[in-house]
Design brief:
about 15% helix; 5-stranded antiparallel beta sheet; mainly beta
Amino acid sequence: MKTIYGLILFFSILLAGPGIIDVVNNHPDTTKAENGCNKGISLEKRILPTKRRIEFITEIYPKLAEPSIIYFHSSFLPKQNNIVTLPLGRKITDAESKIMPGPKVADTLYTVLIQEIVLNKKIYKQGEIATLLVSSTRPISKPQIKFLKRNYELYLAGENLYKTILAVPMDADTGQHYLIFRYSEDDQNKILKLPFRIIPGDFAYEDTIELDISILTEEILEMLRYENARYFYKAYTTDFPTLLINGDFIWPCDGIITSLYGRPRRYNKDLDKWSHKAIDIANNPGVKVVAANTGIVVMAEELQAHGKSVVLAHGQGIHTVYLHLDKIYVKKGDTVAIGTEIGELGKTGICTGPNLHFQVMVNRIPTDPRYWIPGGVNLKKGDLVKSSSNR
């Protein structure tokens, strides 16, 4: 009987296979298991080495030592429905938390209102113009801009895209400055600062005896002040948010530059001195004068000191001024396209000869007209200009 039981146990072990032998002996056949030949069940749990490795995401935020552009999100942060999702395991660094709006973020999701705020340059010359661009994920509440001690409005230029033109006065202090941008987010007031630098303009400040070009009586000086306050200031405050400008500005007439923007002038010896706030273009009386760009006539007057004068509003705080005309072809309220005749060159008012006083105002600040017209920056006194409407 014992012999029969022994035979049954022997054949059972053979039929069960090597797995039971391994379990009984507590010595698994790992070589066969790794080669895939062992179909048996092992009760041991093994940890095998892996070739996977952890890679850290490189930070790509721009350096902010002296930027003209600040980003509040980066390309590696994918957007979904105005929510920025961080990659798995990605955390906000201390440096990022300082430039991102809102409180510090501990979770993996956060919202961003201001995506980008850009000044078109880092360095501007006196008399130049600057452009500010702001993009956001949704409409900006209560935006406010202060640039060189002046307040500006922010105008909608597209879906959640804003733009405004800024003026650098001819007497702006040179050196480092900051544009201040204020807005409201989640019922909290926010403030951003963009650095820029001002350098001297391309005009001389020297005062020589040659600049004594006229003797003005107190009555004429008073008339100039009165006309500025009564007519021109009112025209400059007539504005609208729609930008009517159609492409680049053009020269309003043919002629020779006789006086540049920023040129110092001295009247009555030491009585009165100021810098020229426009460009004078000389030519024969009767030469046609055209609109430098599309706009609306907000002033067309025959004045005693400034002569026959026209002011066009182009929207968003931009105005062009045309003085000393011999004839005026337009009236207040007219809409004129770029290149449309608005009058004839003349010598009315206080002037030394037939010429056009051409001025470009931004937010009631006179800017150098040469910056508005392609190729104009390098022009000097005595150079010939030609209106593209005459070509």
